[in-house]
Design a protein that fits this description.
With 437 residues, this protein is α/β, with parallel strands linked by helices. Helices cover 35% and strands 23% of the residues. It is globular and about 60 Å long. 43% of the residues are buried. Bound molecules: S-adenosyl-L-homocysteine, iron/sulfur cluster and FE3-S4 cluster. Residues 158, 160-162, 165, 167-168, 202-203, 238 line the site of iron/sulfur cluster.
Length: 437
């Protein structure tokens, strides 16, 4: 019987894709994927530390494996990702959970195979964190799990050092893959039948900076010229680097989805300055205007943080005002979480929890109303869904339209991987329901 692996993933799309790469490495070692953690020979936790609750979530789940490991001493437990890459966290983790066999970081993911072989030969725990980013690894064979979508890294790391954010400390400096490698990967994914390509980077607009390679809009244009029917998405765009050129390229191809994730974080200029975001709320609104000029139907989504140190009631009102002005298609709302090692962690005036809670509740209400309104606009319209899955409970197929709205519909044939037009009859929060036409 073959050996089995199970991967638990926390955090962003970047991590989801990295778990696909880990799965690829494990399958090269002869392991098969398994849904049941108890039956698995290897369990890998791919962690996140963007906010405290992401860390606690991982700690809780790793803690729950203690009993399982005691009952099955041959089980290998590996913990990697952003949490372990943080300063001193690997040692803390080892002290807290001595039964964890392998601890690795973000910069040495590709060596996990060697660590597993090493672990199988010796009983000693393996704790390996590399400080330096190292060379970009090409030729990886991820075991993809998100068909008909495929994630494609275009760059790694971040140079922005937003004052609240841990990412630059755990993902290292920005480095871009060579465009010829990216284009070759997308071509082969489209040939394999993937219908949606999502380009990944912490700040895709600075793709190629500091190299002789092409810019992000040029890369998008080249990818859009690949033959075949498929959609292109990308994330994340930093507003300071969003350019008119990008809007022009987005408008010029029917493959590039008319939606943009453009995290604003706050609507207050003094908070934006303290966050080191390097734009004002007026700059942001200007970029939205440019985008709408080129693509009137473009849907904009965002990330918002409340309770950043020093945020006054007036600052919070400025955020709500900006949200009203832009009218987002949807938004992720977060309570500021203090991250050791970041600049904001040492700022005076950390906001009391009850104040942040009140603010986030108000903001969530505002954002949800906008989301519902954007969904309702589709009622009566025909929209094209890329079918992703079948929901057995509801007996309906589901997938997203180019604007990112989830659409549900009935069909007698298996529609997974197909583009299906539906006439929307009902909208419910973030979901649309309709009939195949
Ligand atoms: N590179 C991307 C996203 C990175 S993390 C960007 O610049 O937008 C995703 C989101 O998590 C951020 O946009 C931000 O809203 C949120 N986030 C990051 N650090 C946080 C912190 N310390 N507390 C609360 N939210 C945070
Ligand atoms: Fe974090 Fe800012 Fe980099 Fe995004 S751009 S990953 S928020 S430091
Ligand atoms: Fe992503 Fe979390 Fe790391 S959001 S980059 S997995 S800290």
């Amino acid at each position: 019987m073959s050996k089995l692996f199970h991967i638990v993933t926390y955090g962003c799309q970047m991590n989801v894709h990295e778990s696909e790469k880990i799965a690829g490495l494990l399958s090269e070692l002869g392991y098969d994927s398994c849904d049941d953690i108890e039956k698995s020979d290897i369990v890998v936790f791919n962690t996140c530390c963007i906010r405290e609750n992401a860390e606690n979530h991982a700690y809780g789940n790793i803690g729950m494996l203690k009993k399982l490991k005691a009952a099955n001493r041959d089980m290998i437990i590996a913990v990697g990702g952003c949490l372990t890459q943080q300063m001193n966290k690997a040692e803390n983790l080892h002290e807290k959970f001595p039964y964890v066999d392998i601890i690795f970081g973000t910069h040495n993911l590709s060596k996990l195979k060697d660590y597993i072989l090493e672990k199988r030969a010796s009983k000693k725990p393996i704790i390996r964190i590399e400080e330096k980013e190292g060379e970009i690894v090409e030729g990886e064979k991820p075991l993809r799990t998100s068909y008909p979508n495929a994630w494609v890294n275009i760059m790694y790391g971040c140079n922005n050092f937003c004052s609240y954010c841990i990412v630059p400390y755990v993902r290292g400096r920005e480095r871009s893959r060579r465009s010829e490698n990216i284009i070759a990967e997308v071509k082969s994914l489209v040939a394999e039948g993937y219908r949606e390509i999502t380009l990944l980077g912490q700040n895709v607009n600075s793709y190629g900076n500091g190299t002789d390679d092409i810019t992000f809009p040029e890369l998008l244009e080249k990818i859009a010229s690949i033959d075949g029917k498929f959609r292109i998405r990308f994330m994340t765009s930093h507003p300071k680097d969003f350019s008119e050129e990008l809007a022009r390229v987005m408008a010029g191809s029917d493959k590039i989805c008319h939606c943009l994730h453009l995290p604003v974080q706050s609507g207050s200029d003094s908070i934006l300055r303290a966050m080191n975001r390097r734009y004002t709320s007026a700059d942001y609104l200007k970029k939205v205007e440019i985008l709408k000029k080129y693509i009137p139907d473009c849907e904009i989504t965002t990330d918002l943080i409340v309770g950043f140190p020093g945020e006054t009631e007036e600052d919070f009102r400025a955020t709500c005002d900006l949200v009203r002005k832009v009218n987002f298609s949807s938004a992720f709302t977060f309570v500021y979480s203090r991250r050791d090692g970041t600049k904001a962690a040492t700022m005076p005036d950390q906001i009391p929890e009850e104040v942040s809670k009140r603010r986030i509740m108000e903001l969530v209400d505002l954002v949800n109303a906008q989301t519902r309104e954007h969904s309702a606009r589709f009622v009566g319209e025909i929209t094209e869904i890329l079918c992703e899955d079948y929901d057995a409970k509801r007996g309906l197929y589901l997938g997203r339209n180019e604007y990112g709205r989830m659409g549900y519909f009935a069909s007698d044939t298996d529609e997974r991987g197909n583009f299906v037009n539906i006439k929307v009859t009902q909208a419910n929060g973030v979901s649309l329901y309709g009939d195949k036409v």
